[in-house]
Automatic annotation (TrEMBL):
<dbReference type="Pfam" id="PF13411">
    <property type="entry name" value="MerR_1"/>
</dbReference>
<protein>
    <submittedName>
        <fullName>MerR family transcriptional regulator</fullName>
    </submittedName>
</protein>
<dbReference type="InterPro" id="IPR047057">
    <property type="entry name" value="MerR_fam"/>
</dbReference>
<keyword id="KW-0238">DNA-binding</keyword>
<dbReference type="InterPro" id="IPR000551">
    <property type="entry name" value="MerR-type_HTH_dom"/>
</dbReference>
<feature type="domain" description="HTH merR-type">
    <location>
        <begin position="10"/>
        <end position="78"/>
    </location>
</feature>
<dbReference type="InterPro" id="IPR009061">
    <property type="entry name" value="DNA-bd_dom_put_sf"/>
</dbReference>
C-alpha cells in the first residue's frame, strides 16, 4: 500500500528512498539545522514532505555534484531551503529565480570590528570536489615521478594535503560503493 505524498515518512522509509543508511540522515541532522523531523515518543522520527525534498537536494549536491558539507551549508544559508529542494528535482528556473532573489536582498552592515573568517579554497560555495587523480595510490600519470612528502613548519604542505583529500575522497567513494552492494 502506497502512502499519500503528503504523509509523514519514517527514517527507514526516507533512508530507503534516498538509498542511504539511517545513520547518515541522523548525522545530517547535526550538520544541517534546516532538517527538523518531528519526533514522537521514544525519539522516533517522522519526516515531513518538505524535509524529504530537502534531504534529496542535500544528497544530490553532496553525492552527485561533489559539494562539501560546508558548501551545502553555505548554499542553504545564502539561497534557502527551496533552492536546495529545487536542485534535487533539477528545476533550473526555480533555482535561478531563488538565487537572483537572494542576491537582491540587502545585507545588513557589519557593525563589529571582527575580521571575517578566512575561507579555504575547497569550502567555496558552488565549487565541487576535484575528481581523484589516483596519484596517492601510486598510479602516477605519464611523465610524473613519485616523491617524498614534504613537511613545512610542522604542518602538511599544500600538495600533500591535496593528495590526502584525494585519498579520503577515494575511500569515501569505496565505502559508498560497498554500502550499495550490502
Amino acid at each position: 500500500m502506497e502512502k499519500s505524498p503528503d504523509a509523514f515518512r519514517t527514517i527507514s522509509e526516507v533512508a530507503d528512498d534516498l538509498d542511504l543508511p539511517q545513520h547518515v540522515l541522523r548525522f545530517w541532522e547535526t550538520r544541517f539545522p534546516q532538517i527538523k523531523p518531528m519526533k514522537r515518543g521514544g525519539g522516533r522520527r517522522y519526516y515531513r514532505p518538505d524535509d524529504v525534498e530537502l534531504l534529496k537536494g542535500i544528497r544530490h549536491l553532496l553525492y552527485d555534484h561533489g559539494y562539501t558539507i560546508k558548501g551545502v551549508q553555505k548554499l542553504l544559508k545564502t539561497n534557502g531551503n527551496k533552492f536546495v529542494q529545487a536542485a534535487a528535482s533539477g528545476d533550473l528556473a526555480t533555482m535561478e529565480a531563488l538565487a537572483a532573489q537572494a542576491e537582491e536582498e540587502p545585507v545588513a552592515p557589519v557593525t563589529s570590528k571582527v575580521a571575517p573568517p578566512s575561507i579555504d579554497e575547497d569550502e567555496l560555495v558552488g565549487r565541487p570536489k576535484a575528481p581523484s587523480t589516483r596519484r596517492f595510490f601510486g598510479l602516477i600519470g605519464p611523465g610524473e615521478e613519485a616523491r617524498e612528502p614534504t613537511m613545512s613548519g610542522g604542518g602538511i604542505g599544500k600538495e600533500d594535503r591535496a593528495l590526502l583529500q584525494e585519498a579520503l575522497f577515494d575511500l569515501l567513494e569505496c565505502k559508498r560503493l560497498l554500502d550499495q552492494v550490502r
